[in-house]
Amino acid sequence: MALLAEYRCKATPARRVVEVYDADAYLSDDEAMAAACRHVVGGNGYHLYILSLQPDIKVEVAIRVWDTPPAPPADAEGQVPVRIESETGILVVNQLAYGPAGEMTLPRPGIYEGHVWWEGRKATADYYERSLGHPTDDTFEGHLTQAWNNCPFTERYVLDLAYIGEPEPVDEDDL
Question: Which DSSP category does 166 fall into?
Fold first, then answer.
């Protein structure tokens, strides 16, 4: 298995969500969001939602394209299979309240399958909750910003994908 492309960025999971979607597939999807609430990651084929346990500490999102995706690490906290179609060949990593955190140009447009695995999700959420336990005074907000910027854990979501085929043809009647 060979790594063909890799992209990493940090994103703030505003409302506890980070999105990954094709550059032309920016419309939200309630069913995909509900699936993320059940399984940490949910999607509709064009749009993935990643659900964090906290809304303020930046998370790392890595998108890796392989000729054949490797198995998730044995010590990953969890993983789910995913499929995403990118008609444009560009995947956007989006922060709900702040806009795009970055974008990756894929080796080619098409349908990609693989899995998303994660680590540091629970440790970061526990740290987040502990940081909220300090007294509320004039320095509270500054304390929180410093605590969140210096989190000792990395909450990481890794999309390991492989190209499986051409994008589905666009039905002109749907336009």
Answer: P
Q: How many angstroms separate the CA atoms of 47 and 21, rounded?
A: 4
Residue from 152, 95, 96, 146 nearest 126 by CA: 152
* 77 alpha-carbon distance from chain centroid: 15
Angle, alpha carbons 142-148-154 (nearest 5°): 165
Q: What is the pLDDT of residue 90?
A: 97
Contact by Cβ (8 Å): 82, 162 = no
Task: Work out the percent of the chain whose per-residue pLDDT is above 70.
Answer: 91
pLDDT in tens, 52-93: 999 999 999 999 999 999 999 999 999 999 999 999 999 999
- Residue count of the chain, please give it: 175
Cβ–Cβ under 8 Å, residues 40 and 50:
yes
As a whole number of angstroms, the distance between CA 170 and CA 37 comes to 30
Cα torsion 20, 24, 28, 29 to 10°: value is: -90
Cα-flanking dihedrals φ and ψ of residue 155, to 5°? Answer: -85, 120
Pairing of strands 59-66, 156-165: parallel
The residue behind tokens 């629970």 is 122
Give the list of residues 6+ apart from residue 2 with CB closer than 8 angstroms, or none: 66, 67
Count of alpha carbons within 13 Å of 62, Cβ hemisphere only?
16
